[in-house]
## 1
Amino acid sequence: MSVQANSQKLILVTAADTAYFNLLQEWVKSLTAFPEIADLERCVLDIGLDAGQCEWLTAHGTRTLKPSWDIELTPGAQIPKYYQAMTARPFLPKYFPGYEIIMWLDADIWVQTASYLLNYITGAEKYGLALSAEIDRSYAILFGEYNEFRLMHHSFYYSCFGRQIADQLIQYPIINSGAFAARRDHAVWARWQFTCRTTMQRAILKHSEQAALNLALYEGGLIRQTHLLPSLANWLCPMSTPLWDPTRKKLVEPNLPHEVLGLVHLAGLVRQVQLRTTRGGQVTTALTYSGIQALAATAQVE
């Protein structure tokens, strides 16, 4: 599938403020590096960008839009401006009325393999909603390690919904809200809006909207109307550090057959890291788009 051949109008959306602008630039550069997705219409929800940053985005074919507060939060609460990205996400069809398919991609995600981004669009076209779960054979959390992640998500669920629902939801794979595509007529939007409103009246957390999405999908059976993509389509770096393949000059999954990652989700892992290589060596790099491009340019071969 190519974007140009797609008959349904679609848009790719993210959100950023000045603190996220460097990552946002990586987001844009990775998208425009591939001819098959470079012309995909893009929009950034402006939750605190400055004029110069907006000008940079315009010069790189990306428009901006200032969201409103779509959910009435507790009066007097100290809500950070970036939280508008959370309240706006379930309401994206309102902001983009002329689009049949809306794809969200967090600003700390960059595209390494364009076909995986296109899979989201195809999944939304055919099945209505495409996203991925936080499960992979390389994620140590599946085998009892990194229990702090599991406890963290349980605490989010507990704060948002109480113990009974938290104990139920934590048994299911966590659906990541950082990358997804949906048709505007899919039932998930209305259900997510409802669960997000009720959730944020109880707990205003960084993960409240993701917790609300999981409740919307699992509680009403909407998960059966969802097309799940593999973890390669939204690789969570803190869950499992990728390997570096010096031959293909790409980040790959840690286990055989070492498939190339599609979308690289930094999820806070922006520092320099040591990567094992598929040849048994090590390299030091940032996992950002620019960091990996610089590593590839050195053409290191052990």
Note: The chain has two domains: 10-138+174-231, 232-298.
## 2
Amino acid sequence: MRSIAVIAAALAIALAPHASADESPIGPWRLGMSKDEVMAFSKFQPYASMAAKHGLETPNGTLLGEARKVTFMFDDGGLSYIQAWEYDGDNFEAAGNGVLRIFDYFDKNLGGATIDGVELKEGDTTTPLDHSVLKLLIAQTLGTAEELGEVRRGEGATMTMVFDMRPTQQPEGSVLHSQWGYTSRNKTYFVYLFQDRPTNPKRGAASIVSLQKQ
């Protein structure tokens, strides 16, 4: 069986040119919209207020053409960021397929993707991130997360594993960022896609694996 070594490293991310995309992967909404403008897309109702009325959420949003929960957060400038919930649950296979679905969008439309702090090697050769390599990486990381989490639980700690995946290029006017991983606290896999203003603080976990005392 093919084996890929996963090496964590502090990698500098070079500035990449902006790509133009025909439409957002997260529905018809655009950053800067008011709450009323977001809710004007009535086909995605019901919208519910959340986060001390600074946010909205609908269970009937859309991500890459499929129904998904979508969250909208606002500030004085309107819609600040959008979060699409590709997956949130206890099924490893479904989570892995969600990661691959977002990667395939990045690969087709935005020149590929990188994962923060991860260098992939096969022997002494650096391996480019493609669909098959990412599938193997998911198996070797998320695929072992539940077992590792149980070990940590026995040591009196809960574990969170987080990977930050970014497109090689960014669409004009926004920043896309996928975050995926596993938390042993409630034995949940998660896969999200965020769409931020370019001026928002950069997203990213402090480390791929973190431990919290029970």
Note: The mean pLDDT is 88.
